[in-house]
Amino acid sequence: MILTEYDDSPAILNPEDDFNTNKDNFPKVAVGCFSRRILESLVDALHPEEIGVLKNANERSPIYKITNNGISIAVFKARVGGPACAIAIEEIYAMGAEKIVIFGSAGVLDKSIEEFGIIVPNAAIRDEGTSYHYLPDTREISVKEEDLNVLLKTLEETNTDYVIGKTWTTDAVYRETKNKIQKRKNEGCIVVEMECASCLAVAQFRKKGLVQFFYAADNLDGDKWDPRGLFDGSHSMDVKVKILFLALKVAENLYKSL
Prior knowledge:
Number of helices: 6
CATH architecture: 3-Layer(aba) Sandwich
Helix content: 25-40%
Strand order of the largest sheet: 5-9-8-6-10
Structural class: alpha/beta
Distance between the termini: 39 Å
């Protein structure tokens, strides 16, 4: 299989080849938010300074800087899908970040996890392609213990309830079959999403820090798909903005761990 052809030799194109940001002034920690509406809420409320941009053929996404308890934090819109998200965090690291926290929704494979409940992945099943270009082929990738402990400590300090377990990172949303779901559940997966394995692989290859957590959205643990809180309805924005500020607290504590 082509994904077993791991090659760690230097690349022709590198993330630092194409951005215009003052690396010396870039925050050492960053928060990636998948939801456009959550990020817009932050911008509307705090009017943060724009310090850079992530761009591709069909999108320009500003990078903002906010100060939380005296600590500078970069905030950016994470891209959906392993390849796109990996490119974004590659560029954020190249700009100067040392540690990143990413948060967003995930589909639950355990219906007992309540809507908007916080889920912490401690490992990701690598059912995608991007991670195999950064690390040798293995079935799963674990979260770096040092950074995972910072996340868990923050959740405990803020009295935030959470569940912990493996996540299933897949490239193919519309091929999440009942048989595959059951197999992943048997391996210990409690959620499914599209980016975690890819992001963890980038971080480990670059020798940087990264943690990711999810809030529970759609439910795949049943006979029929239930979207629950997957879509950004106005009734749920207050909850999701609180989760954003939780991510900022995690970033603050990651900075203290540097």
